Amino acid sequence: MTTNKSRRVLHLVVCAAPPSQSITELIDLLHADLWDVYVIATPTAMTWISQLEIEQRTGRPVLHQQRHPNAPKSLPIAHAVAVVPATFNTINAWANGINDTLALAILNEALSAKVPVFASVYAKATLVSHPAFAEHLRLLRSAGVRFTDVEALRPQVPNDPFRWQSVIEVLRNVSLPQL
């Protein structure tokens, strides 16, 4: 895929959860909606995703490690950042300001830069009911993170398909900054 200057830039943070295995479905929908997608994966997500397939779809490498201080920056400024699927671990680490992976660094910096940030939570019911999780969701919401409906994205039955359209709808319903 070639970059078109009229397209909006999305930093897509991908965490390790079952929907990450079909993240190319979301990438295709985003491309159709005129997003230029840059994928940033958590270290564990790198073992779940098809790196080659994502790179073929986006035309660029999947980023997953902090760059060396002397290395050139490889990410353009984003119009928006989305974390899909947003796991229990990532939500909790992000809310606590932990910055030990590239994915968390992107998410933390987006909050500070006032870039629109979206999250689609995917977690087991037992983890969603953990008291720290609810508090961290409130904290991130108060910082401006917009969430898709948690219930809509939690699998109701095993192998239930992830509802990618809910991500597209959230991105469509927000005015994005002009860069």
From TrEMBL:
<dbReference type="Pfam" id="PF02441">
    <property type="entry name" value="Flavoprotein"/>
</dbReference>
<feature type="domain" description="Flavoprotein">
    <location>
        <begin position="12"/>
        <end position="118"/>
    </location>
</feature>
<dbReference type="InterPro" id="IPR003382">
    <property type="entry name" value="Flavoprotein"/>
</dbReference>
<dbReference type="InterPro" id="IPR036551">
    <property type="entry name" value="Flavin_trans-like"/>
</dbReference>
<protein>
    <submittedName>
        <fullName>Flavoprotein</fullName>
    </submittedName>
</protein>
<dbReference type="GO" id="GO:0003824">
    <property type="term" value="F:catalytic activity"/>
</dbReference>
